[in-house]
């Protein structure tokens, strides 16, 4: 284990991959490893990239990696796909388009899929961010699929959140409107060479105006820019990278960078606690109660009450 | 409380609305109410409607409600929007298009928004399904936004899942491919009068063919139909309703209907237990540990371990 933790601290890719797998698998060695590497974390800027399917988030992430590498920064990418059954660090099929970074030692790409359990994915994602942070990556991009609760959990983990839109997707602004709208610190309209760009731009401008009036932005001290991009041709990468650094500087000027890191650790603590408590409640007797609920012989509130009572009767339950 | 439970059993709309709010707010009266109404549940068919943003799920749900009402069935609709901060039964702005059912006593529509907590939304959704079931609605449609983990949780709660696609959305089939693909029992291509319908239809046919070869469908005994719809003009409603009943009959022929209901109660039991355990762990001492984690003075695994130790030392903690 010490070798793996040391490897992570030394930035060894194989060690990082192993550490992420341990943590995603809930291997007990993962917890020990986090204790070892934690003092070396808190430096990387976590950047969330989210938006509706079809907005070109992967291509935009790819463009950003290229831009950040040209500035000599080391970049980690965590691709979060709640609809994918693949987990534990395998690079998904649709990641092949990022293959051009695969041989670059300054880039580390991992995919995380569903944990089959509410909240499990955002816990794994945060663990992976800590590992990449300890490995010395300057920026860790967390890219999501879709617009569900998992995505909101993920962007809430980021220092800086990029919302990617695209012209011509009718419900798109609507999909962004709540939850994610509050979190967005950089808005990008990708595929800006498409028909309908100006109409979409006006919708976003209106939305940002309404957001300002309603004063609901997560980061009240920051004026969120609306940028245009054509990620397939590399257009817009520079401006987005500049905005990422500008937001970091703005956060640091108000101690907001460390505060966001701290909120993540708080949420992570609760997520770990939740998983451990539930694991305890489900010994052999617990399984019998669950079977009663599954047979619909007792309602779920009564069943949960019985499980709680079982825990209370057993102090030595580990 | 007894009045509210009796009101639910009598199908009184105001009682149902109150019950759903109690449960969504985690009011203790909600748990007592579920105990009272539980014996009257297990009859309604829960139908999940999901698919990417822009597929027209709301309009399709509206069409289905009209079709089911024409068959003299009572219909409940729960609109689940994880990106919305509105919760507790308020009808969202975008629900106004369902206004034409608002005065029909055979239709009950509620919206549920984010709980701000992993898994909380699917727990509230299941509670609301139980209430509508006890009120005597024959079909409860659970309509989701987006394609995240929450949506997968929701469709896993349904007896029958409808996946709605739309021509011309490039990543759409991809977004459906895992997680949701396994769950789909009825596939509908909406907006079928649009350009690109035939290409999308071929993609879905191929996907369904691959799914059959891989034998990954959740309901292996059912051959999922691929239907076309133009929900804005009412086209396709009859065929979808027929497929819903055909799937119910197929499930019942193999005891699958009760089995799916039971799996829901099992998941719900775990969700309730998870929420109660975490609430216990967070007394005043617990908050101090969380503050340590938030200040990044201890790592989240160490913090979670301390919280567990606190629980173990306190038998009288309620």
Automatic annotation (TrEMBL), chains A, B:
InterPro entries: AAA+_ATPase (IPR003593), GTPase/Isobutyryl-CoA_mutase (IPR052040), GTPase_ArgK (IPR005129), P-loop_NTPase (IPR027417). The keyword Acyltransferase does not apply. GO terms for molecular function: GTP binding; GTPase activity; kinase activity. It comes from the Bacteria. Belongs to the SIMIBI class G3E GTPase family. ArgK/MeaB subfamily. It is an enzyme of class 2 (transferase). SUPFAM superfamilies: P-loop containing nucleoside triphosphate hydrolases. The keyword Transferase applies. Its EC number is 2.7.-.-. This is LAO/AO transport system kinase. Residues 43-255 form the AAA+ ATPase domain. Keywords: Chaperone, GTP-binding, Hydrolase, Kinase, Nucleotide-binding, Transferase. PANTHER family: LAO_AO TRANSPORT SYSTEM ATPASE, LYSINE/ARGININE/ORNITHINE TRANSPORT SYSTEM KINASE.
């Amino acid at each position: 284990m010490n070798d793996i933790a040391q490897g992570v601290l030394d930035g060894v890719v194989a060690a990082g991959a192993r550490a992420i797998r341990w943590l995603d698998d809930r291997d007990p060695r993962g917890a020990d490893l986090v204790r070892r590497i934690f003092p070396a974390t808190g430096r990387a800027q976590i950047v969330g990239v989210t938006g509706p399917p079809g907005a070109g988030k992967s291509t935009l992430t790819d463009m950003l990696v290229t831009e950040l590498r040209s500035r000599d920064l080391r970049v980690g990418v965590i691709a979060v796909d709640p609809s994918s059954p693949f987990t534990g660090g395998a690079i998904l099929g649709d990641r092949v388009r990022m293959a051009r970074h695969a041989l670059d030692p300054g880039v580390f790409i991992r995919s995380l899929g569903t944990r089959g359990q509410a909240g499990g994915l955002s816990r794994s994602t945060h663990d992976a961010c800590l590992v990449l942070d300890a490995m010395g990556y300057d920026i860790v991009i967390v890219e999501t699929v879709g617009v569900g609760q998992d995505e909101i959990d993920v962007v809430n983990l980021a220092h800086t959140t990029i919302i990617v839109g695209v012209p011509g997707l009718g419900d798109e602004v609507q999909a962004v409107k709540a939850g994610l709208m509050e979190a967005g610190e950089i808005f990008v309209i990708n595929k800006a060479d498409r028909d309908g760009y100006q109409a979409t731009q006006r919708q976003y401008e209106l939305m940002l105006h309404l957001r300002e009036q309603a004063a609901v932005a997560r980061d009240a001290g920051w004026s969120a820019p609306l940028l245009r991009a054509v990620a397939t041709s590399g257009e817009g990468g520079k401006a987005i990278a500049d905005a990422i650094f500008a937001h970091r500087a703005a956060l640091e000027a108000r101690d907001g960078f460390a505060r966001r890191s701290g909120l993540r650790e708080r949420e992570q603590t609760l997520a770990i606690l939740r998983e451990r408590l539930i694991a305890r409640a489900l010994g052999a007797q617990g399984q019998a109660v669950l079977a009663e609920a599954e047979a619909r012989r007792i309602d779920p509130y009564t069943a949960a009450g019985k499980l709680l009572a079982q825990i209370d009767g057993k102090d030595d339950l580990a």
